[in-house]
Specification:
- The complex is a heterodimer of chains A (187) and B (446).
- By secondary structure, chain A is α+β, with helices and mostly antiparallel strands.
- Chain A contains seven helices and six strands; from the N terminus they run ααααβββαβαββα.
- Helices cover 37% and strands 14% of the residues of chain A.
- Chain A starts with a helix and ends with a helix.
- Chain B has 446 residues and is an alpha/beta fold.
- Chain B has 18 helices and seven strands.
- Classes of the chains: A alpha+beta (187), B alpha/beta (446).
- Chains A and B meet through helix 1, helix 2, helix 3, helix 4 and helix 7 of A and helix 1, helix 2, helix 4, helix 5 and helix 7 of B.
């Protein structure tokens, strides 16, 4: 014959369906050893740290010193440009000013140019070194890269001559669609 | 390995975790490559780390509030939050530029401006995840220690019990206030739900002035017995009281119990009739059926109502209360004073000093296994029932229909708090019953 205490540690546990559902049964071991989450965490934390430190590209010489400001995708309500500046006429429609240190060429650039201008957007390449380039660079307020030299990136000016986007992007050839999104949003 | 996994352990099913980990890694590799193709790994990293931080904090909150790991697919939570956080980038890909309101997606715009960038987010994410892993590790250790001791693991126990094991009530006796040094049988005073020994303290002190010894325990999971036990049904509570009496070498005793404590008393006397001479049941939680029990107890307060209906909201609310037990214990006397001037500081503190499963199991016991209706009909020990005429939980007229001819039935003016509303008259009546036992024992000795 079982004692009251024995029944309290066995029978009453199994009478309540909630006990079985929740695993509140005498001697029911948790399914994981206590050290396993720590071991997995240490391995995962090490792997993640390596990925973040080694595989995520940190600002290079042509990038914005603050990565947050580069290609943020936010439309600006920037400065309003005069109708004509640095040899470029503004106000007839959206214009993309591509800032480069040397005149771009090659298949990557051609593909980028074709994508950016295929919907009638005017593209102007501004190569550093001329007084006009300096004038345009200052007017669109494009950031100075890490190396302190001329910017490589682009600015988008709408039909009202307002600067709506201005970013450094040394890898711009990879991201023609980004320019399309910006010009599409302001057209 | 069990064929059917208990609900609390399903999120830790090793095979499920392994599959989730593989899915998470595969999905993140694809996302990493997609962002990388556009020279945007920096964005992948930020949003992943933010998602990891939020996931870790929510999983930690879930563990602390419910006393068990959840939800079911813990690792997929990270992937879900990552996909949510990067949603504006998907919109951008289909032609929608970014806007400030997109911060709704886990701060999609603003998170990039944290000083230190991804390195800062990495440290934050690892710290948050380490916090969750530490809590989960302690939870696993605590539950393992309980299981190794042969106890039901304390899944669902919140507050400090998340991080440390409960004591085995077969080894550690109930905490009790012992008013001793007097001759004669001991009066054992059992409290009800949401109460502690403090509930009976005014009566025990009154009895002490009459030279009557008293023993006032905190039931399992309540008051100073907070860390005792992981399972709190009537059998558990009765067994714990029996152990206490055996440990103190007391008995037969005059067993006095209030409300839910009366159900414990009836269970105990059925299990060990030799330990009890007679009973005084004050406002016993006796109801005609489970429906009336639900109405009466559920009508007491919002929490009891939710608990009676099995609502998970009650679990979360109580988890929150247990998490903030220390400040709540300090605040309770001030809050209680607004409702009743009779409530002492200790009684008010006792109202928030319990583990939630103790309360929930007690309610479940009253619905499923309440021995009181049967006991009141045909008690096997002399029994006196006292009810408050203004008690809205245990209705005097309703209890009157349940008591058999052998039960002495008394009505007191008062509510469901007679032990501290009218300790003097109650102690006088208990003293009367105690004198009967003392005289009976004297006669037996002679």
């Amino acid at each position: 014959m079982s004692t009251a205490i024995e029944r309290a540690t066995t029978a009453s546990c199994c009478d309540d369906p909630a006990d079985k559902t929740w695993g509140r049964l005498p001697g029911a071991e948790p399914p994981l050893r206590w050290w396993l989450p720590i071991a997995v965490f240490i391995a995962a934390a090490a792997a993640l740290t390596l990925v973040i430190l080694l595989l995520v590209r940190y600002p290079g010489p042509l990038d914005d010193p603050d990565p947050a400001n580069q290609r943020d995708g936010l439309l600006l309500n920037g400065p309003r440009l005069p109708p004509e500046l640095g040899g470029v006429t503004f106000g007839d429609g959206p214009i993309v000013l591509l800032f480069e240190r040397t005149a771009p060429n090659g298949a990557g650039y051609v593909a980028w140019r074709d994508t950016v201008s295929d919907d009638g957007v005017e593209l102007v390449v501004v190569v550093a070194g001329s007084p006009e380039a300096a004038e345009l660079t200052a007017a669109v307020d494009i950031p100075t890269p890490v190396d302190g030299g001329s910017p490589v990136g682009y600015a988008v000016i709408d039909a009202a001559r307002v600067v709506r986007y201005s970013t450094l992007d040394p890898m711009y050839e990879l991201n023609a669609f980004e320019v399309d999104v910006i010009t599409g949003a302001i057209s | 390995m069990p064929a059917v996994w208990a609900k609390a352990y399903r999120p830790l099913h090793p095979m499920s975790l392994a599959v989730q980990l593989l899915v998470l890694i595969a999905a993140e590799v694809v996302l990493f490559a997609t962002y990388g193709a556009h020279d945007a790994r920096f964005h992948w990293a930020t949003h992943f780390l933010v998602a990891l931080t939020i996931s870790a904090l929510l999983l930690l909150a879930g563990l602390l509030l419910t006393g068990a790991p959840r939800p079911r697919f813990v690792l997929l939570v990270v992937l879900g939050f990552h996909l949510f956080a990067m949603a504006p980038d998907v919109l951008f890909r289909v032609g929608v530029p970014h806007y400030r309101w997109m911060d709704l997606f886990l701060g999609h715009i603003t998170v990039h401006y944290l000083p230190g960038g991804d390195v800062s987010w990495l440290l934050i994410a690892l710290t948050a995840t380490a916090g969750y892993i530490a809590a989960l590790t302690l939870w696993l250790r605590a539950r393992s220690a309980e299981a190794d001791a042969g106890m039901p693991p304390g899944v669902g126990l919140t507050g400090g019990a998340v991080l440390r094991p409960q004591f085995d009530p077969r080894v550690v006796p109930l905490a009790a206030e012992d008013y001793r040094g007097f001759e004669g049988p001991t009066v054992v005073l059992l409290h009800g739900l949401g109460a502690t020994a403090a509930f009976w303290r005014p009566v025990a002190r009154d009895l002490a002035t009459r030279q009557i010894p008293a023993l006032v325990p905190d039931l399992l999971g309540f008051g100073a017995s907070l860390r005792l036990g992981t399972h709190f049904h009537l059998d558990d509570q009765a067994a714990a009281v029996i152990r206490l009496l055996d440990a103190h070498n007391r008995g037969p005793v005059l067993l006095v119990a209030h409300s839910y404590g009366a159900a414990v008393a009836a269970t105990m006397v059925t299990d060990r009739p030799d330990l009890v001479h007679s009973l005084v049941l004050v406002e016993p939680a006796a109801f005609a059926d489970a429906g009336e029990a639900r109405r009466r107890i559920g009508g007491r307060n919002w929490l009891a109502n939710k608990a009676m209906n099995g609502s998970q909201v009650a679990d979360w609310a109580c988890g929150l209360m247990c998490l903030f037990r220390i400040p709540l214990t300090a605040l309770a006397p001030r809050i209680a004073r607004h409702y009743s001037a009779d409530v002492s500081r200790d009684i008010a503190r006792g109202a928030v000093t319990y583990v939630w499963p103790a309360y929930r199991d007690a309610l479940a016991s009253l619905l499923r296994d309440n021995p009181l209706p049967q006991w009141l009909q045909r008690p096997t020990k002399p029994t006196t029932v006292i009810v408050g005429e203004n008690d809205r939980t245990v209705i005097a007229d309703s209890v009157a229909t349940l008591v058999g001819p052998d039960v002495r039935f008394e009505r007191f003016p008062g509510t469901h708090a007679l032990p501290f509303e009218h300790p003097g008259p109650l102690a006088a009546l208990i003293a009367l019953r105690w004198n009967e036992i003392a005289e009976f024992q004297q006669d037996a000795d002679n």
